[in-house]
Design a protein that fits this description.
Length: about 160
Amino acid sequence: MPRPKIPVEDRLEIQELFAYYAWGLNTGDADEVVACFTDDCEFEHLPQGIFRGHDQLRVLLSHLWYDKPGWFIGRQHLATHFVMTPLGEHEMHVKAYSSILQHNLDYRRSFVFGLASWDNVCTKASGEWLFKSVRIVKWMGDDVPWVGEDRARISAPTGALL
């Protein structure tokens, strides 16, 4: 089956949407983050849950930024390897990988905080691409995307290899 041909302008606008979201998120700019979402958006961020609409997004942001001082500041969310599938004239399913780099201000050290994947729906119904739904799947065990056979998973041998 051929891959869908996404107009370059739409592809770049959607990638820029991710960039605006990340810059807002990583610098504590709630207005910038909220501006990336439709009014009726749905954001699944586990373990906190599912947040609907701009007001609930602000509740999530406040929790992430301020309920654990020193925990979030210094993060850099990176989205890569975008796979886009049209869902109609004004909607796009967007999958991407996510890595989160963290600079710890106290220790002045940087490290990879985590890996995840995105499963989003973007809409251009308002004339610009916005997030309609966002689902982040954090890789915390067996949540790593894999469609191949399970034998690729690591299993420590318990006896002689045949």
